[in-house]
Amino acid sequence: MAANTYFAPNVWDVLRKQLSLDHEINQPAVQNQIRWIISHPSYIQGLAKQSEPYIYHVVTEIKKRGLPGELALIPMIESSYNPFAYSVAGAAGLWQLMPATATELGLKQDWWFDGRRSIRPSTDAALHYFSYLHQLFNKDWLLAFAAYDAGEGALTRIIKKSPYTGRRVSFWSLEVPQETRAYIPRLLALAEVIQNSQRYQVRLPNIPHLPYFEEVNI
Fold this sequence. Notes:
Elements: H1 2-7, H2 11-18, H3 28-39, H4 41-50, H5 55-65, H6 74-79, H7 99-104, H8 119-136, H9 141-150, H10 152-161, H11 178-195
């Protein structure tokens, strides 16, 4: 095991190869988030460390589906990579799925078991949902991320009210809720800093790209 760990690639090196989106660093909101992250190094280091048990699985599943690696950073924002995170609104798990959304995605929830807190089924469900949102919002990943945060119905209504309806809608032109307005720049800034950690002089913990846990049937 020690030998395998020694020769395993670093999970951040693997993830960097999968980061494929434009991080829009010329946007003032993204620049502000980058400045905040690099001035608070313990923030990203803490998130990175907390991701250790689960990020291998998330990155692997994202690669299988040919999705952008930036999706692996969503649980950093949603739950700080804590599968037992629970919001006052009722969202739960790494991906902070709401009960109704989880049910629609086929996740079991009862007195004994909540699939939102189980790593494999919740990740499968979340990635399926992101793929659906990507198609729904004209293959625009920023709109898909915004819909995940604000709700697909809410974002659809916002787009319909936009004076830009009929043209290619940009996330940056929409009047989205303040939480979503901060969500997208934070995600893009995290991706940019992780992709270029040396440039930004941010040290990430060494996490081998290896399974941290095994699944068993009980």
